[in-house]
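Hi P.,

Sorry for the delay on this. The queue was packed all week, but I finally got your sequence through. Input first:
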Amino acid sequence: MMGCKSNSLTCLQGGKPALPLAATTDSTATLNKLALATGGTEKSWYRCIFPFGIVSLVIGIAATCITFIINGPQMDIAKAVSVATLMFGVGLLVAAYICWRAKRERQRQRQREEPLPLEQGAL
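Then the structure:
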């Protein structure tokens, strides 16, 4: 580090060139790898937010009941936080319901568009 006057990474590595940056990957290949790794659950995130909505709703109801029963000057912030948690839980549940309905409607639409097979094999 005798000739370095800056704190660049090359100078800190003793004059050796830095490792080459990773090449950018194709976004579709990355999404396919993600779908393979997660089992396709990235397309059904509403199934994930539903339990969090239930938990937030229960915590919000309990906290709101407690904070509104206990009156005091220090409880104003706690009341706001408990009501916000309650609203967040309701919002998550509404978002999950809307996404579920939209997916169900798309599935019904696809079933209507697909022609029924004329001959079905016997089991």
